Amino acid sequence: MRITAGLVTVASFVATAATIFNAFLINKQFYPAMVYLTKSNASMAVIYFQALVLVYISFQIIRSIFFGDLRAAEAEHLSERAWHAVLETCLAFTVFRDDFSPLFVLQFVFLLLIKSFHWLADDRVDMMERSPVITIKFHVRIMAIIGLLSGVDSYLVSHAYFTTILKGASSQIVFGFEYAILLTMVLHVTIKYILHMHDHRMRTLQSWDNKAVYLLYAELIINFVRCMLYGAFTSVILRVHTFPLFAVRPFYLSIRSLHKAFFDVVNSRRAINMMNTYVFFF
């Protein structure tokens, strides 16, 4: 028998209903039943699993609203990035293991969901370059998700900042840093969307050769900002804790991307100058 997402969802609802019914059957009253549920490890495991199922359902609903059906490449990229993100974030939060609580788990799951929507928005905007026709529905969805993600990221960065100022160093440092990185991704997606949209409008009139150059400069600036954020985060963590080993891999990837973007810009300028010199010579 094949286990599907629908079967797991139904089973979780049945298990949760049976757990709550059993608690009321034993204790007869509301308050003792709630105490029984919170004190029972098995009951809390069922409730936590039900919460994860509800989060999954919410993700699917929001995904269908803003992105519709995912393409095979988008689903593959999402699963690969999610796996690495879970490992890196879990490693990051070992620094603040004393802050572990149900609220902490909720914030972690919410961070993973927000990251997923950022990755989907990035892939969907990149698809514009390969699509001959872009519908109004596509533009509405992209502008809506960009506005939503930028608002969420900005609010959570400010919340993490003020929480750290008032209560001292905690896991909010990691959350704030993660949302700051995601905010740079939203900025990059917005720039690419504007450039692709302008390119689609120019196709009916004439070819627009400067789009690739603008994309290179945008990638260079965004990667530079990310490297600065990683450097600032590392210096802050070194002051309040030990060396952030979990930041080594993303920091290295950002530096490598910055290095590649810089040389791409340099090579692009060289190629343009050589072509201009060649045309002028003839």
From TrEMBL:
InterPro entries: HRD1_E3_ubiq-ligases, TPR_SYVN1_N. GO terms for molecular function: ubiquitin protein ligase activity; zinc ion binding. The chain crosses the membrane at residues 6-25, 46-66, 103-121, 142-161, 173-191, 212-233. GO terms for cellular component: endomembrane system. Residues 6-273 form the E3 ubiquitin-protein ligase synoviolin-like TPR repeats domain. Keywords: Membrane, Metal-binding, Transferase, Transmembrane, Transmembrane helix, Zinc, Zinc-finger. It is found in: Membrane. Its main location: membrane. One of its GO terms (biological process) is proteasome-mediated ubiquitin-dependent protein catabolic process. Pathway: Protein modification; protein ubiquitination. This is E3 ubiquitin-protein ligase synoviolin-like TPR repeats domain-containing protein. It comes from Diploscapter pachys. The lineage of its organism: Eukaryota, Metazoa, Ecdysozoa, Nematoda, Chromadorea.
